[in-house]
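Suppose you are handed a protein chain with no further information: no name, no annotation, nothing but its sequence. What can you learn? This example shows the usual starting point.
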Amino acid sequence: MTIDLPQNGISEDFKVLVVGGGFGGLSSAIACAREGLSVELIERGNGPSPYGDAIGFGPNASRIALRWGVGEEMWKYASQGRYFNVRDAMTGKILHREDNAALPAQLGYPMMGGPRAKFYSLLWDKAVELGVKMRTNTPVDGYEEDAGPRPCVVLKKGEKVSADVILAADGIKSKAKLVVFGYDDPPRSSGYAVYRAFAPADALLSDPLTAPLADGCAHSWVGHDMHGIIGTFGKPGSISHMSFAVTRKDTGGGAIESWNAPGKLEDVLACLDGWDPVLRAGISKFPSCIDWKLSWHDPLPTWVSKDGRITLLGDAAHNFLPTSIQGGSMAWEDGATLGICLALADKTPSGGGESGRQQRDNWHKADATASPDKLALTTSGFYDHDAQRYALDHFEGVARGVLGDGSFKVDLARLEKATANVNLDAAARCQAGDFYGPE
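A reasonable first move is to predict its three-dimensional structure. Written in structure tokens, the prediction is:
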């Protein structure tokens, strides 16, 4: 089955339906809207959520944010400290440092770690600005591809919403998997759970023991099959908020799959008994926390339905553990890539996640003698990837393979227009001096 697109690649008659309003769904909606496609986004929640703690985007995603005109505003709220510090669990001694200032010096784009809710609202607002139709409080009960001339989603209340293409960005439990590869793929426990929290940083700043942590850097304590992270947002002197995450073995008690199940700070401190007093004091400054079971599924056999009209993306396609520090970035890349592919296509034809587990294991087995290569971020090799440029450069060759047509060529005018919409050369390039901290 094929879908004929108009020769200019833009038509209000060609509808893209995005299911799920997380970072992958929003990036897909924005990328498609920038290409002039008609986009509707279905979200089960009631709009931009004020909840969530911290999220980090690598340079491979921040370059897209800057091209789309949201990166400069995100940077105002991001962690602007110079280093990612890896510390010994018991003594707090710095064992390894990732120099954030080296990233823009080498790649032209920064790491952006910051408040999830703020970053999310900026992306949501950009989608609305571009004309994406937002449909909130709309849970999806299932997907259908063969029941009519176009695929559709079935809403909880029974209504069916159809489109030419459906982008399933509805998370690790996506119901689109039944259509895409014919069976359900329920997530299973990774064997680990994480305590997480986010709060104003006033209490951290007011205690001389913990005030040095309010430097806009991330500090990670590693070892004994656990790791804990405290991060602050802004730059020294203007720190507004703080977050923590403690990843430990899931013993089967307490943690559940819900991302917002309440936890107990006394339980967090109990599992860190004997650890660096600075870490323990820092965590005690938070008023509350959540206890989140980390789920996982194996790499999927395919992300695209047999007729090519429904595709998975983000966590629905390739979920990451938080230790990968790439889950959000790759969801963003998915969306940016899909927007370009739909813009360039003449017709629509009838795993990296392991790094998070490796990062976790490296840190949890670390001690004061660990080598730097075991403490460094395992996903830093992704930072220089430019998903948008790659899609523009390689779409034609990939399409030939998918279509089985070695003569397929992308329309030159369409390629030029898509390239202009991507805005490759207009991004502000962050400088090393934009980070704050000692040499």
